[in-house]
Design brief:
The complex is a heterodimer of chains A (116) and B (106). Chain A has 116 residues and is mainly beta. Chain A is built from no helices and eleven strands. In chain A, the strands form two sheets. In chain A, strands 2, 4, 5, 6, 9, 10 and 11 form a seven-stranded mixed beta sheet that branches. A four-stranded antiparallel beta sheet of chain A has the order 1-3-8-7, with no helix packed on it. Classes of the chains: A mainly beta (116), B mainly beta (106).
Chain lengths: 116, 106
């Protein structure tokens, strides 16, 4: 398997523009996670899905952020409108069924977002 | 929520040295994982270790769940070990510590 695939790798945009980040989890994994990494706050969980259903979105910073998982092989994280303080690396991760006893989290390469 | 503290925050080693990284957590957890983030930003899962001891080559990890800590041992360090090591624990969701930044010099 190619692992968790994220796109784009880098995104530079202007304040106020809409940003869409994409993620393809590992095939067969039932859980998908969106994390944000900044120097100040480290790695923060934004939202996670289990079997395509959002389970916990308490980490989503504000209404400008939204995430969807229309099917088991694709998820998006959207920021509208974007602001400079949204600049960060956004990671997507997936894991097998939580009922499995050896649950591991696998990360994508991340999207480096810069909002000017 | 659960607090996850890692120590030391920074570590500088010469190639060949051994090191121990520590992760303390404030409450009972279902899951504990160690990750390495390389200088290019890639996060790699090292161990899934809610309890006990595991070894993988020069790396090993021990979690003592009853005392709420985990240790990551790196033996005979190499320059490729450089990066940030994160501990992550889960009760209802996975929470990351602030990491230990390791620099290994030749």
């Amino acid at each position: 398997d190619a692992g968790v695939i994220q796109s784009p790798r880098h995104e530079v945009t202007e304040m106020g523009q809409e940003v869409t980040l994409r993620c393809k989890p590992i095939s067969g994994h039932n859980s998908l996670f969106w994390y944000r990494q900044t120097m100040m706050r480290g790695l923060e969980l934004l939202i996670y899905f289990n079997n395509n259903v959002p389970i916990d979105d308490s980490g989503m910073p504000e209404d400008r952020f939204s995430a969807k998982m229309p099917n088991a092989s694709f998820s998006t994280l959207k920021i509208q409108p974007s602001e400079p303080r949204d600049s960060a690396v956004y990671f997507c991760a997936s894991s097998p069924d939580p009922a499995e006893t050896n649950e591991k989290l696998f990360f994508g390469s991340g999207t480096q977002l810069s909002v000017l | 929520g659960i607090q996850v503290e890692q120590s030391p925050p920074d570590l500088i080693l010469q190639e060949g040295a051994n090191s121990t990284l520590r992760c303390n957590f404030s409450d009972s957890v279902n899951n504990l994982q160690w990750f390495h983030q390389n200088p290019w930003g890639q996060l790699i899962n090292l161990f899934y270790i809610p309890s006990g001891t595991k070894q993988n080559g020069r790396l090993s990890a021990t979690t003592v769940a009853t005392e709420r800590y985990s240790l990551l041992y790196i033996s005979s360090s190499q320059t490729t070990d450089s990066g940030v090591y994160f501990c992550a624990v889960e009760s209802d969701k996975l929470i990351f510590g602030t990491g230990t930044r390791l620099q290994v010099f030749p």
